[in-house]
Amino acid sequence: MKSVTRSLRILEAVARHQPVTLGELTKLFGLPKSTVQRTLVTLNEAGWLRANRKDTTRWEIGARILAVRPAALQGSSLFAAAREPMIRLRDTVNETIHLSVPDALHSMVVVDRVDCDHAVRTFHPIGDTSPLHATAAGHAILAHLPNPDVDEFTRGTFEGYGEETITDPRELRTELLRVKERGYAVNHNQYLQGVCAIAAPVLDGDGVPLASVALSLPDSRFEPGRLAELGRLVNETAAEITARHLR
Hints:
alpha+beta; 9 strands
C-alpha cells in the first residue's frame, strides 16, 4: 500500500507541475532518484503518464487519465446541469453540441456530446483532447482566465494546424479580448480542416471558467450571416448551465 500511495502522490504532483522533470520530482518528495524513476516508468507503461513531446526529459499526464476523467465527471453537478440545456440547443439548431473541460492550461477534454441527425456531422469522442489556442472551446476558457494565467499561456509560440490557426501570442491575446467582449468564441478551420465551432464558457460563482459548451458543425453548413444568432444561442445555453450549476 505504501508504494501505491507514493505512486498516487507522484501522479498528483505531475498533474500540478507538468511538464516536470525527474530531478524536480526527486527534490519535491525527497526520495531516491531511482525510486521516482521506477514509479514514473510504471505509470508510463500503464498509460497514466507520458513523456512531453517537445522535451522527453519532462513528464506529463497521459491519455488514460483523460479517458477516465469524463466518466467521473458524468456524476458531477456540472454534467447534470449541462445535459438538458445542451439537448435543447441541439434541438434548436440541429448541430452537434459538445461540453469540454480544461486540463489545466494543457488542453480541452470532451466530457459530453449531444449529436444532431445530419448524415454529415462533426464528431469528437468522449475523452478526446484538443489544443486551447486553436479551438473555440479553448478560446472561451482562455478569454475568462485571470491575466497572470493568460500571460503564462501566451509565452512562446503555438503549433499551427492550418492557415487559420493563430500562432502568434499577440494575435491570440487580441482575439481573446474580442471573445470576452462578444461573449462567444469562433473556430473557423483553425484546428481541424472543414470543422467549425462556436463556444461560450460555463463559469463558477467567482467568474472562473469551468467548461465550454460548443456548437460544432461542418464548414459546408457554416453561414457567416447566422454567426450572431448562433453565438447568442450558445452564450444563453452556457449562461443557463452556469445558473443551474450554481443552484
